[in-house]
Amino acid sequence: YDAIGNPTSYLGKTLTWTMGRQMESLSDASNSIQYTYNENGIRTKKTVNGTTTTYHLVGDVVTMEQTGSQTPIYYAYDGSGNLFLINYGGQNYFYVRNAQNDIIGMVDTSGNWVVEYQYDAWGKLLGTSGTLANTLGQANPYRYRGYRHDAETGLYYLNSRYYDPQVGRFVNADDIYSVEVEQGNLVQYNLFTYCLNNPINMSDDSGYCAANIIGGVIGGVAGAALGYLLAKYLGLSGWKKWALITAATVGGAVLGAFLGPYIAQLSRLAGTAIKAGFQPTISILKTASQAAFKAAKGVNKFSVSAKHLLGAGGRFAKFTTTSQSIIRGLIKTALTSSAAKFYSNGKDGSFYVLYSFGKAIGTKGEQTLKIVFDTAGKIWTAFPVK
To 5 degrees, how large is the angle CA 39–CA 41–CA 43? Predict the structure, then answer.
């Protein structure tokens, strides 16, 4: 390992790293691979044995990729940013997912299955079948949980880190500071752990945090409304309905964390499953949760003004650190923690979150971070408050 915990030798492979935790190269007996990233840490190129694949990005999603002189592959996303179509060889194919968001296959425009994938619980590919298994099935990189799969290494690229399904862990460690802040200690979970060792119920699109944590954020926003929605969805009435609503109000974050992957689908039922008084809350709930997820994924695009960093002089210093990376870690933690509290900002469709770290993060002893962001997931500002 190097000084910050990145492995330089891993299961017969030699690795090099750049910009802290970005894998720069990987080599073994069969391959020599180099990786290139943009200013936000998202991969833009991959060169395997001299042949380069270039990724065209819109934000942090790939809309087109081309390997060498081969025909480009195009991707399409819906209004919520979910990948639903691949254009391969000039033909359109639609992704089919299961309840856990695994891509289990593809169908053509006539609805015929042309590729099917099988995985174990940790994402190891068990088999590929179908009439296009050896062409489209191999060329398509999006697989388990919708992650991007690198066929030459067997690793999944999760934007900030690489995940190895063969051993069920990340190749390199998470940031120590952010884990210590979120968990309260450094030993609750190993820094290499994937989805807190719970791959059945969790996913991790960014390499930073499990998806159920987003569910926890949602639960903390409006537990009562969520409880009412679930009671209707489950067909409960009488004391059972009100018991669930009460439990959700008291323990909304816990309920949300448990149901994290399904909240988006359930919230679409708001129009028929919730009384009029709850509808505005659910609308805000859904929008805030989606915006928070986008903001957490794009946290590297945000920087605090230099005058607010420790040692800047004058009365404007706000944070107890000079590191933009540490501040981004604080922001990411606040946006994805089940203990965070979300509020409407009252204008321009924006929101703010308050999260207490239980320790001083501000120059005046403040322990709480306030983050303001919009519906597109753009972070407007972040600063410590009392």
Answer: 105
CA distance linking residue 379 with residue 40, whole number of Å: 14
Q: Is residue 31 a contact partner of residue 152, using CB atoms and an 8 Å limit? A: yes
Q: How far apart are CA 373 and CA 353, in angstroms?
A: 9
Q: How far apart (Å, rounded) are the C-alpha atoms in residues 189 and 128?
A: 33
Read off φ and ψ for residue 158, nearest 5 degrees: -110, 35
∠ CA(39), CA(41), CA(44), 5° rounding? 85
Q: Tokens for 331? A: 């922001």
Q: Residue ranges of the domains in the chain?
A: 9-175, 179-294, 295-385
Going residue by residue through the chain, which has 386 residues, state the pLDDT in tens, using 9 for 90 and above. 988 889 999 999 999 999 888 999 999 999 999 999 998 789 999 999 999 999 999 888 899 999 999 999 999 998 778 899 999 999 999 999 987 889 999 999 999 999 999 999 999 999 999 999 999 999 999 999 999 999 999 999 998 899 999 999 999 987 654 454 444 444 456 778 888 787 877 777 766 555 553 444 444 444 455 555 556 555 556 655 555 555 554 444 444 444 444 443 343 333 333 333 333 444 455 577 778 878 888 898 999 998 899 877 667 889 988 888 899 999 988 887 766 777 877 666 788 888 888 889 999 899 999 999 998 889 999 999 98
pTM beyond 0.70, yes or no: no
Cα-atom radius of gyration of the chain, to the nearest Å? Answer: 22
Question: d(Cα 25, Cα 84) in Å, to the nearest integer?
Answer: 31
CA dist., res. 41 & res. 254, Å (int): 32
